[in-house]
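Can't paste images in this forum, so I'm doing it all in text. The chain is below; anyone willing to post the predicted structure tokens underneath?
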Amino acid sequence: MRRKIVAGNWKMNGSKDLVNSLVGQIRSELASLDNGVETVIIPPALYVGDVLSQAGAALTVGIQNVSCWDSGAYTGEISAVMARDAGCSVALVGHSERRQLFGETDEQVAVKVGKALASGLDAVICVGETLEEREAGKAEEVVSAQIRKAVADVSNGQWSQVVVAYEPVWAIGTGKTATADDAQAMHAAIRGVLKELGAPAEEITLLYGGSVKADNAAALFGQPDIDGGLIGGASLKAEDFVGICRAMPGES
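Text version of the structure:
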């Protein structure tokens, strides 16, 4: 059975006050949730320790980016080994903001996937097309190419650490979201690519991200190939984030 995951990416937002007020509230409100969802908090790296101290066993903590290197003279970088040592269990890799704002290439994403997996982190590999690419009819082509390059060096024993998050670039932080049917179509295509590559595709968790809210989460999570969400802005408000977690099918 595939893991059901709802991950909150705080991006460059947060403070000690936010950690203290938000994480404990989320942990408390999800304590009675029994729909099998795995809840992940991914704060800025400076607050990983603070989040871990509040998370307890109920919440998993991740890091937003890892370096292409393990150690050395790379000022400002944080290696996957360090993230694991600090207590993280998950790493985002290849988020569209990293690709667009910092010029991260498919080749760099592949290296980072390898570093994350080798360190023992689960890699949440982010893929997605721009509005221009979608309007040109190239969405599946673009996303398929991103996946093929990102997982090219994943070994058979590492697939259980791989999660793929489909985030159409045009839906991130815009208030726009793909319809449930459109999102499902892309997720099915992603699973098809993974199967072609020899991965245990039916066992790999696929997430949708891009303006997910409590009022559209149920329709998205109800699709057969969507196993959860990568949440941005809504993860900064306990009520919104918990509402999304509760939308996962299976809650009694």
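DSSP finds ten helices and eight strands in the chain. The mean pLDDT is 95.
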